[in-house]
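Quick note —
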Amino acid sequence: MTDGDQDPQTAPKPKTAEVAAYLAARMCHDFISPASAIVSGLDLLDDPSAQDMKEEAMGLIAGSARKLADLLAFSRIAFGASASAETFDPRELRTLAQGLFNHMRAELDWQVEAPSLGKPAARTLMNLVQMAGAALPTGGTAKIRAVEEGAFVAIAAEAIGPRARLRPEVLAGLRGEGPGEGLHGHWVQAYYLRLVVDDAGGRVFADVTEEKVTFAATVPA
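Predicted structure written out below.
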């Protein structure tokens, strides 16, 4: 188990510029696949020898454009400044989360009861949503809950599936540790989430058991 109160290992903390670079690289990695697919579809439409594949090309373009739009809308809340909004309607966040899960193998079970969420809580929720989906590479159910408890919002994301897993670099990021030798794209989201929660005065941890990964956080309302 990792806990927000646990002392990170004695490794050098990554610099702000390094974290920003890793986060930018992570988002570019997410966006490049659907963007490249759109270009491939356009190339098929322009290829005189592939006119019989026009319908397939249009389907590829349409599906990839939807995925790219969903990822951009999600990332704007999870990682961006999100315009001037300071509070978010959970119904709108559910739409963004479902858009993300439309391109994942896992199913989304949304049980958020908080009437509204401040920016730190919304960012925490969105990142946990994506991390829970990523913990189910072969499918399963991501149960997302959030309730107000006094001055805090308690958030839980349970990834339940036959091959539920959590990469070591994700655990390291949640502990506030450096990237080590793991994949930086997976580490940086967890590390960024830890920074968001710490800055807000909250806590975050993860627990891994057989066929289940549980993320939990408490963030000021």
